[in-house]
Amino acid sequence: MISCTRCSTLIAPEDPACPHCGTEVARVTTAAPEGPPDLPARYPIQQLLGRGGMGRVYLCRDHDLDVDVAVKVLPPAIAGNPRSLQRIESEAKVAARLRGLPGILSLYGFERHGPSCLLVMEYAAGARAASPRPAAGASAPRSPTPSPRPTGTACSTATSSPATCSSTSTGG
Fold first, then answer.
1. C-alpha to C-alpha distances, 141 to 78, 125, 133, nearest whole angstrom
2. Which domain, by its residues, includes 101?
3. CA diameter of the chain
4. pLDDT digits (tens, 9 = 90+) for 80-118
Protein backbone atom coordinates (compact mmCIF):
# COMPACT_ATOMS: atom_id res chain seq x y z
CA MET A 1 0.00 0.00 0.00
CA ILE A 2 1.06 3.57 -0.64
CA SER A 3 -0.30 6.85 0.70
CA CYS A 4 -1.96 9.47 -1.47
CA THR A 5 0.19 12.59 -1.65
CA ARG A 6 -2.90 14.80 -1.43
CA CYS A 7 -5.15 13.25 1.25
CA SER A 8 -2.99 10.45 2.77
CA THR A 9 -5.56 7.74 1.96
CA LEU A 10 -3.99 4.30 1.54
CA ILE A 11 -3.97 3.17 -2.08
CA ALA A 12 -3.52 -0.36 -3.40
CA PRO A 13 -0.47 -0.73 -5.66
CA GLU A 14 -2.65 -1.68 -8.63
CA ASP A 15 -4.97 1.37 -8.35
CA PRO A 16 -4.24 4.13 -10.90
CA ALA A 17 -5.70 6.85 -8.65
CA CYS A 18 -6.69 7.59 -5.07
CA PRO A 19 -10.19 6.17 -4.40
CA HIS A 20 -10.96 9.09 -2.06
CA CYS A 21 -9.82 12.22 -3.94
CA GLY A 22 -8.96 10.92 -7.42
CA THR A 23 -5.32 12.05 -7.42
CA GLU A 24 -3.32 10.02 -9.93
CA VAL A 25 -0.69 7.77 -8.42
CA ALA A 26 2.84 8.67 -9.44
CA ARG A 27 4.61 5.42 -10.19
CA VAL A 28 8.37 5.28 -9.83
CA THR A 29 9.99 3.22 -12.52
CA THR A 30 13.57 2.14 -12.68
CA ALA A 31 14.98 3.28 -15.99
CA ALA A 32 17.75 1.43 -17.72
CA PRO A 33 21.09 3.18 -17.37
CA GLU A 34 21.69 5.71 -20.11
CA GLY A 35 24.31 4.83 -22.65
CA PRO A 36 26.56 7.38 -24.30
CA PRO A 37 24.74 9.98 -26.38
CA ASP A 38 24.79 10.10 -30.15
CA LEU A 39 27.22 12.96 -30.82
CA PRO A 40 28.46 14.27 -34.15
CA ALA A 41 31.40 12.17 -35.45
CA ARG A 42 33.58 15.24 -34.87
CA TYR A 43 33.38 14.61 -31.08
CA PRO A 44 34.31 11.03 -30.16
CA ILE A 45 33.70 10.46 -26.44
CA GLN A 46 36.73 9.65 -24.31
CA GLN A 47 35.00 9.56 -20.92
CA LEU A 48 32.10 10.83 -18.82
CA LEU A 49 33.29 13.77 -16.69
CA GLY A 50 30.13 14.38 -14.69
CA ARG A 51 26.35 14.46 -14.60
CA GLY A 52 23.66 16.52 -12.95
CA GLY A 53 20.31 18.19 -13.43
CA MET A 54 21.54 20.14 -16.44
CA GLY A 55 22.84 17.09 -18.29
CA ARG A 56 26.01 15.09 -18.69
CA VAL A 57 29.46 16.39 -19.51
CA TYR A 58 31.83 14.29 -21.59
CA LEU A 59 35.49 14.63 -22.41
CA CYS A 60 35.68 14.47 -26.20
CA ARG A 61 38.35 14.97 -28.82
CA ASP A 62 37.35 17.61 -31.38
CA HIS A 63 38.75 16.18 -34.60
CA ASP A 64 38.29 19.44 -36.50
CA LEU A 65 40.22 21.59 -33.97
CA ASP A 66 42.50 18.74 -32.79
CA VAL A 67 41.91 19.58 -29.11
CA ASP A 68 40.17 18.01 -26.13
CA VAL A 69 36.82 19.64 -25.34
CA ALA A 70 34.11 19.26 -22.71
CA VAL A 71 30.74 18.56 -24.32
CA LYS A 72 27.65 19.08 -22.17
CA VAL A 73 24.65 17.16 -23.49
CA LEU A 74 21.43 18.72 -22.23
CA PRO A 75 18.75 16.34 -20.94
CA PRO A 76 15.75 15.67 -23.21
CA ALA A 77 13.42 17.59 -20.85
CA ILE A 78 15.44 20.75 -21.53
CA ALA A 79 16.37 20.04 -25.15
CA GLY A 80 12.70 19.44 -25.97
CA ASN A 81 11.37 22.51 -24.16
CA PRO A 82 11.50 25.60 -26.41
CA ARG A 83 11.47 28.06 -23.49
CA SER A 84 14.28 26.28 -21.61
CA LEU A 85 16.26 25.89 -24.81
CA GLN A 86 15.89 29.60 -25.60
CA ARG A 87 17.22 30.48 -22.15
CA ILE A 88 20.20 28.12 -22.48
CA GLU A 89 20.96 29.51 -25.94
CA SER A 90 20.81 33.06 -24.56
CA GLU A 91 23.22 32.12 -21.76
CA ALA A 92 25.51 30.45 -24.31
CA LYS A 93 25.69 33.72 -26.26
CA VAL A 94 26.63 35.59 -23.08
CA ALA A 95 29.25 32.97 -22.20
CA ALA A 96 30.74 33.22 -25.70
CA ARG A 97 31.32 36.95 -25.14
CA LEU A 98 33.30 36.22 -21.98
CA ARG A 99 36.23 34.53 -23.76
CA GLY A 100 39.59 35.24 -22.28
CA LEU A 101 38.34 36.48 -18.92
CA PRO A 102 40.08 34.92 -15.91
CA GLY A 103 38.04 32.19 -14.28
CA ILE A 104 35.78 31.56 -17.29
CA LEU A 105 36.11 28.60 -19.67
CA SER A 106 35.64 29.45 -23.32
CA LEU A 107 32.47 28.28 -25.01
CA TYR A 108 33.25 27.00 -28.51
CA GLY A 109 29.70 26.32 -29.63
CA PHE A 110 26.06 25.56 -29.01
CA GLU A 111 24.89 22.84 -31.37
CA ARG A 112 21.82 20.80 -32.10
CA HIS A 113 22.35 17.20 -33.17
CA GLY A 114 19.14 15.29 -33.80
CA PRO A 115 17.07 15.57 -30.61
CA SER A 116 20.15 16.53 -28.56
CA CYS A 117 21.54 19.95 -27.73
CA LEU A 118 25.23 20.34 -26.94
CA LEU A 119 27.39 22.99 -25.34
CA VAL A 120 30.98 22.56 -26.53
CA MET A 121 33.47 24.12 -24.11
CA GLU A 122 37.14 24.44 -23.36
CA TYR A 123 38.40 21.48 -21.36
CA ALA A 124 40.61 22.26 -18.35
CA ALA A 125 42.47 19.00 -17.69
CA GLY A 126 42.47 17.95 -14.05
CA ALA A 127 40.56 21.04 -12.91
CA ARG A 128 37.83 20.89 -10.30
CA ALA A 129 35.26 23.58 -9.63
CA ALA A 130 36.83 24.35 -6.25
CA SER A 131 40.51 24.14 -7.27
CA PRO A 132 42.65 26.76 -8.98
CA ARG A 133 43.70 26.45 -12.63
CA PRO A 134 47.32 27.41 -13.38
CA ALA A 135 47.99 29.97 -16.10
CA ALA A 136 49.85 28.77 -19.19
CA GLY A 137 53.56 28.59 -18.37
CA ALA A 138 53.05 29.55 -14.72
CA SER A 139 53.33 27.38 -11.64
CA ALA A 140 51.12 29.49 -9.39
CA PRO A 141 47.34 29.62 -9.84
CA ARG A 142 46.06 32.73 -11.56
CA SER A 143 42.37 32.53 -10.59
CA PRO A 144 39.70 30.11 -9.42
CA THR A 145 38.95 27.35 -11.91
CA PRO A 146 35.98 28.25 -14.03
CA SER A 147 32.97 26.05 -14.27
CA PRO A 148 31.63 25.06 -17.71
CA ARG A 149 28.82 27.61 -17.39
CA PRO A 150 28.46 31.34 -16.96
CA THR A 151 28.16 32.42 -13.34
CA GLY A 152 25.84 35.12 -12.07
CA THR A 153 28.79 37.46 -11.51
CA ALA A 154 30.23 36.83 -14.95
CA CYS A 155 26.85 37.33 -16.60
CA SER A 156 26.39 40.56 -14.69
CA THR A 157 29.70 41.75 -16.08
CA ALA A 158 28.70 40.99 -19.67
CA THR A 159 25.13 42.22 -19.57
CA SER A 160 23.32 45.15 -18.09
CA SER A 161 20.77 42.86 -16.45
CA PRO A 162 21.97 40.00 -14.25
CA ALA A 163 18.48 38.54 -14.44
CA THR A 164 19.21 37.38 -18.01
CA CYS A 165 21.56 34.71 -16.66
CA SER A 166 20.97 31.90 -14.25
CA SER A 167 23.26 29.50 -12.52
CA THR A 168 23.21 25.89 -13.62
CA SER A 169 24.69 22.96 -11.82
CA THR A 170 28.34 22.23 -12.40
CA GLY A 171 29.15 19.09 -14.25
CA GLY A 172 25.64 18.42 -15.16
1. 35, 14, 6
2. 45-129+144-164
3. 69
4. 888 888 888 888 888 888 888 888 888 998 998 888 899
* 26, 49: one domain: no
Same-domain status, 1 and 77: no
* 79 and 110 co-located in one domain: yes
Residues 58 and 104 in one domain: yes
The per-residue DSSP string of the chain comes to -EE-TTT--EE-TT-SB-TTT-PBP-----PPPP------TTS-EEEEEEEETTEEEEEEEETTTTEEEEEEE--HHHHT-HHHHHHHHHHHHHHHTTTT-TT-PPEEEEEEETTEEEEEEE--TT--TTSEEEPTT-SSEEEEPPPSS--HHHHHHHSS-GGG-----TT-
Read off the pTM: 0.56
Cβ(7)–Cβ(21) below 8 Å: yes
Same domain for 148 and 113: yes
